[in-house]
From TrEMBL:
Organism: Acetobacter estunensis
Presence of the UniProt keyword Cell wall biogenesis/degradation in the record: yes
Origin organism lineage: Bacteria, Pseudomonadati, Pseudomonadota, Alphaproteobacteria, Acetobacterales
Protein name, per record: Glutamate racemase
NCBIfam families per the UniProt record, alphabetical: glut_race (TIGR00067)
General function of this protein: Provides the (R)-glutamate required for cell wall biosynthesis.
Pathway in which the depicted protein is active: Cell wall biogenesis; peptidoglycan biosynthesis
Documented EC number(s): 5.1.1.3
Keyword line: Cell shape, Cell wall biogenesis/degradation, Isomerase, Peptidoglycan synthesis
Single GO molecular function: glutamate racemase activity
Domain of life: Bacteria
């Protein structure tokens, strides 16, 4: 993903009045942080959302099984919804299945990867942090990102086991447990050379919902980098180069879950802010 793409519109190919259909996908509600950014950058877009809550959290799944599952689920969703672009608003799904999806499915995809490149650009100490799920931290893709975009930096990674679940609760209005937040922050900054970290890449879209708490628990003057705006800019860039029609869609936007979400009543307020009504249960065909 090019973090700088999509800042300029290409004349004649796409306009802000267009109503492209976007399908955003995540293991849970973390990708709604990407949806919020898409609303800002593409205010007229039709955005459907699919949360794979039946398999949440992805970190506990076998890689091969999870990859096949994601590809099958999204193949089915693309056939049913015919989106103009699919946004994989999940780091684990992006690092695991994005290449296969691009090969198999005939629509453009935008993935989400930890903003290590961004962190490498702004760090002064040349020591950057990565806070992600254990599943993301252990993937070879992270090493590839570091080698390609931050070869002169030390990257200190920490896989937070329960932070995504805390973020799910935070979206529902439940303040994150301060002790858990401090432990996850300490997991980064108390590693060797951790005191030199001056930029932290958020490697899970869920973490946007607890970013303020993470920032408050960290040393001062540390930049916490959220990739949501970069993903939205890249999505806009992809759409503006496809020459889409500018028709306005009249059908409602949908948010689906592959298993009933917990505490749906607490979920509704956050969904309404993003222009979604009642969550629906996704039925595979």
């Amino acid at each position: 993903m090019d973090e700088t793409a999509g800042d300029n519109m290409r004349a004649g190919s796409f306009t802000l009045s267009a109503s492209p259909r976007i399908l955003a996908f995540d293991s849970g509600i973390g990708g709604l942080s990407i949806v919020a950014a898409l609303r800002r950058h593409l205010p007229h877009a039709h955005i459907d959302y699919l949360a794979d809550t039946a398999f949440f959290p992805y970190g506990g799944q076998d890689d091969d099984i999870l990859k096949r599952h994601i590809v099958s689920l999204l193949e089915n969703a693309i056939l049913r919804l015919a989106p103009d672009v699919v946004v994989i608003a999940c780091n684990t799904a992006s690092t695991l299945a994005l290449a296969a999806l691009r090969e198999i499915c005939g629509v453009p995809f935008v993935g989400c990867v930890p903003p290590i490149r961004w962190a490498a650009r702004i760090t002064r100490s040349k020591v950057i942090g990565l806070l992600a799920t254990p599943a993301t931290v252990r993937r070879a893709y992270i090493t590839d990102l570091r080698n390609h975009y931050a070869p002169d930096c030390t990257v200190i990674a920490y896989g937070a086991r329960d932070l995504a679940a805390l973020a799910e609760s935070a979206f529902r209005g439940v303040p994150p447990d301060a002790t858990c937040i401090r432990q996850d922050v300490a997991g980064l900054f108390e590693q060797p050379s951790g005191s030199r970290i001056d930029a932290v890449a958020l490697g899970c879209t869920h973490y946007t919902f607890v970013a303020d708490a993470l920032r408050a628990a960290s040393p001062p003057d540390v930049a916490w980098l959220d990739p949501a705006d970069a993903v939205a800019r890249q999505t806009r860039h992809v759409l503006e180069t496809t020459g889409l029609s500018t028709g306005v869609r009249s059908e409602p936007e949908h948010i689906w879950f592959t298993a009933p979400p917990y505490n749906p009543a607490r979920l509704e307020n956050g969904l309404k802010k993003l222009r979604y009504d009642q969550p629906e249960l996704w039925a595979s065909t």
